[in-house]
Amino acid sequence: MDDAFVQATEHRPVSPVLQATGVPVIDLSPLAGTPPSPGTVDALAAEVGAACRDWGFFVAVGHGVPEATVARAVEVGRAFFALPPERKAAMRRTEQAPLGYYDAEHTKNVRDWKEVFDIFPHEPPTTTTQADDELVFVNKWPDDGDLPGFRAALEEYAAAMEELAFKLLELIARSLHLRPNRLHGFFGDGQTTYMRMNRYPPCPRPDLALGLGRHKDSGALTILRQDDDVGGLDVRKRPDGEWVRVEPIRGSFVVNVGDVVQVWSNDRYESVEHRASVNSLKERFSIPYFFNPAMGTLVEPLEEMASEENPSRYDAYSWGEFFRTRRRSNFRKLDVDNIQIAQLRKDK
């Protein structure tokens, strides 16, 4: 195995990883159908708030996303990765056009054992801060003759994810005692939300490599469809820092808050560090949906979350610049760790 995949000794997975116990499982079915009572919504918001505060993530069931929608997305995703290498390479993403297929992504400057395909449900305009440094976000779709229904299936899935994401965003706002739509305005024109299909092939040395290295998600929310049959999502449990495995629950989504929510909440909620482990026998497939603000968003603690007793803990930062920098790091090994919100803390 190429040395580029080998994790530093202190970050290698130790087998077996303990199964997580007590993970919050939240039933969102009261939000479906007849409008729920205010008390029901407040109770759900309190559950979500407790999960975000204590764990940084939760498992959502009864979410209302049709099983058929999920099944179609999984089916076309597996069909895509089964294409011959040269067909996938025709949709390869580049540093300047970072959407499409890729098999050499780095996390924490170590190469991940995976291949991915990225799309933007809403393609934002070209972003540029310098004349020679622009990113062009244009989806690369396979020919319908190669994969019939591929685009339609992923667009249907992305639309269902967006609907769910706004429901979750409202619950998070309520849990922070904000008005229900307080956070919605950050997700307007130029939204940088993207969806990814991950394939983690069997790995000859799962004791040395990771499908996805340890990291925290930089956006607002991540909604992950795990593989129903093959586990591999590990989270660093607070407060002891031990890695534990989040076993799949069929038909569920794993929802975690990202760094943006951590900053907006002024550290009331904290994004969780997580990784994807691999195994030597079975491939693993997952679909994360990264719900991210618009490119022009200035991220800082919300004024309602700061006070004289609890002052703002972060300097404001441009989400577009932050996002652009993080995307570029996927393509190259850096001399230093990538930009983190910890670098923006006022008390660092």
List the helices and strands and how they pair.
Elements: E1 18-19, E2 25-27, H1 38-54, E3 57-61, H2 67-81, H3 85-89, E4 100-102, E5 106-107, E6 110-111, E7 115-119, E8 127-130, E9 133-135, H4 150-175, E10 194-200, E11 212-215, E12 221-225, E13 233-236, E14 243-245, E15 253-257, H5 259-264, E16 274-276, E17 284-291, E18 298-299, E19 317-318, H6 319-329
Parallel strand pairs: 1-14, 2-3
Antiparallel strand pairs: 3-15, 4-7, 5-6, 7-10, 8-9, 10-17, 11-16, 12-15, 12-17, 13-14, 13-16, 18-19
Helix pairs in contact: 1-4, 2-4
Q: Nearest-angstrom radius of gyration?
A: 20 Å
Summing up helix and strand content along with how strands pair, one would put the structural category as alpha+beta
Cross-sheet strand order for the largest sheet: 2-3-15-12-17-10-7-4
What number is the mean pLDDT? 91
Proportion of strand residues: 15-25%
